[in-house]
Amino acid sequence: MRSSNTVPRVCVIVVAAGSGTRLGAEVPKAFVALGGFTLLERSLHAVSRMQERPQVIVVAPAPLVDEASALSTTALGTTTLGETPIVVAGGETRQRSVARGLARVAESVEVVLVHDAARALAPSSLFDVVIAEVDARGEGVIPGLPVTDTIKRVDAAGDIHETLDRSVLSAVQTPQGFPRATLDAAYAAATSDETDDAGLVAALGHRVFVVPGDELAFKITTPADLTRAEHVLGEALIPVPRIGVGTDTHAFDTDPGSELWLAGLHWPGEVGLAGHSDGDAVAHAITDALLSACGLGDIGGVFGTSDPQFVGAHGDVFLRETRRRVELAGFRIGNVSVQLIGNRPKFSPRRPEAEAVLSSLLGAPVSVSATTTDGLGFTGRGEGIAAIATASVVARPVG
Ligand code: CTP
Ligand code: MG
User: Fold this and answer.
1) What pLDDT was estimated at residue 397?
2) How many Cβ atoms sit within 10 Å of the Cβ of residue 374?
3) Contact yes or no for 261/358 (Cβ under 8 A)
4) CA angle 291-297-298, nearest 5°?
5) Is 58 in the pocket of ligand 1 (CB under 6 A)?
6) Do 229 and 264 fall into the same domain?
7) Residue 26: inside a domain
């Protein structure tokens, strides 16, 4: 649950004032686009999804403070206690940029998180975990991942002096979280220039804990990192199909003169199925599977089990309207597979015909199979017919 506090207890400082020399883009790194949003916006999207509503301070290059302000306000929406985020100009080094942000932290704030805008894909869950760990330990907490490469200490000439024991190494990330007083004290006492905040806090003699980081929180430093981020996003954009299942059962009509409609076809000479509509169990199972795949409810809820306009209605009425609703909800039908269970009619001779009719109604491949139940149950005794359908749908790309 997002807490509904009106006074921020947590502040997130997003440092975005670097020039991005190693990336070598035309604009400072935080303003480089990644899948339609700048790195700064993507970092703020994660902040906007945090459990707790924080004060947000963005540190931007001096000439881009106004641009950062506009981007930040939109990216954060209404998630920052109704206030527009504070945007300040950064300094010469990361540490100086953080110090500029720290100077604007609200009085009520007890926990400060510092985050690199360059870690644009860090998930909001990582922010939540860091806050929870700072609360639990009362000390600084930073995310880190085990080091997989063998690390050597080398000099400028390339001479190796040492192979470090990687089992005790951690590649640390942001957001880094600290009790506010600890971080304030570390910055007030700073004598060295560190590349992260934990370094300064540790220099003051405070403990800082490493908790498991996230692969997605990698820092975009070089063009190859940007390509990696594009790939990660590309994969996330591949739509995941949704699946729905539907079943239906109808008894054979007691009136031997009634007509059979099944799988969208008329079956002359066969006894019909009882039901409010034409009792086409195949069409009804498909309808339920499609509605379920899209989260649109079920056939009873959508069409009404007693609506007079569906008295004797054939399967095509249900399937056309279902397709319309599926598409209106932003989905495209992937495919439908349906199995008919019953002794009669003998289905296989007309399978291609049924598949063609149903596929054309839905604008997607429909396959129909049929089986008997070895004389068992109501279908085996010839009392009725059942059908089980599975449907897949995919979200239609926007635009
Ligand atoms: N940063 C900052 N102020 C600086 C330097 C860095 O706010 N004077 C921020 C960057 O914007 C980035 C984070 O600190 O989000 C991590 O720094 P880094 O990845 O080194 O970014 P840059 O300094 O921009 O890149 P480079 O070192 O390649 O120039
Ligand atoms: Mg740098």
Assistant:
1) 59
2) 8
3) no
4) 70
5) no
6) no
7) yes
User: Could you tell me if residue 226 is inside a domain?
Assistant: yes
Tokens linked to 67: 């641009």
* Closest ligand 1 atom to Cα of 23: 28
Closest by Cα among 237, 240, 241, 263 to 250: 263
Domain of residue 113, CATH code: 3.90.550.10
pLDDT digits (tens, 9 = 90+) for 163-217: 999 999 999 999 999 999 999 999 999 988 888 999 999 999 999 999 999 999 9
CATH, residue 254: 3.30.1330.50
Backbone angles phi, psi at 268, to 5 degrees: -60, 140
- How many domains does the chain divide into? 2
Q: What residues pack around ion ligand 2 (CB closer than 5 A)?
A: 18
Q: Measured from the CB, is residue 73 less than 6 Å from ligand 1?
A: no
Give yes or no for a contact between 241 and 333, defined as CB atoms under 8 angstroms apart.
no
With a 6 Å cutoff on the Cβ, whether 53 touches ligand 1 is no
Task: Note if the bond before 175 is cis, omega within 30 degrees.
Answer: yes
**By the 8 A CB rule, do 226 and 220 touch?**
yes
CB atoms within 10 A of CB 70: 11
Q: Is the CB of 222 under 6 A from ligand 1?
A: no
Strand partners, 112: 11, 178
- Of the residues 207, 236, 265, the one at which a domain ends: 236
What's the CA-to-centroid distance between 20 and ligand 2, angstroms? 7
Low-confidence ranges of the chain (pLDDT < 50): 1-4, 398-399
Within this chain, do residues 19 and 125 fall inside the same structural domain, yes or no?
Answer: yes
- Residue 218: give the domain boundaries: 10-236
Quote the pLDDT of residue 188.
95
Same domain, 249 and 231: no
CA 18 – ligand 2 centroid, Å: 6
* Coil, helix or strand at residue 103: coil
In the chain, the largest separation of any two C-alpha atoms, in whole Å, equals 97
Pocket flag, ligand 1, residue 22 (CB < 6 Å): yes
3-class secondary-structure state, position 74: helix
**Residue 124 to residue 2: CA distance in whole angstroms:** 12
* pLDDT tens-digit readout, 80-122: 555 678 999 999 999 999 999 999 999 999 999 999 999 999 9
- Whether the model clears a pTM of 0.90, i.e. scores above it, the answer is no
- Tell me the three state secondary structure of residue 87: strand
